[in-house]
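Can't paste images in this forum, so I'm doing it all in text. The chain is below; anyone willing to post the predicted structure tokens underneath?
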Amino acid sequence: MKKRSVEIAVGVFVLIGLISVAYLTIKLGKMEWFGDDYYALDARFNSVSGLKSGALVDMAGVEIGQVADIRLDNQRQVAIVSLKIKKGVVLTDDVIASVKTSGLIGDKYIRLTPGGSDRILKSGDMIIETESALDIEELVSKYVFGDAEK
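Text version of the structure:
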């Protein structure tokens, strides 16, 4: 009887350990399986070079979401960036989305600059005002080859 109770205790301990590891894997991997606290917005950019899925979205230096997906709109030949924004964050229809770089050659992220409109964006809406990524390679090549005035 004593051997059986030890085996049950070890089994329960192992089960609790596996559940804890699974929970930490999901939370540290930033996967949302146990309730989604985000709403979706799209933004249309001419260029998003260097931006990747999972990049952060910030406003006033505070992380408010992340980039969920980047795809090409074949009709307009522009990039559509899907954003996941935390539910408590209210954005208006004149918000400006910009692709920025953290540091000189750091990771790209989306910075949202608030507007002053009264119309609130809902899940699935499109951010119209956008600023594309600054392409440093293009600027350097223009400077080196003498096209800086154009």
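The mean pLDDT is 86. The beta strands are 38-45, 56-59, 62-73, 78-86, 96-101, 108-113, 126-127, 129-131.
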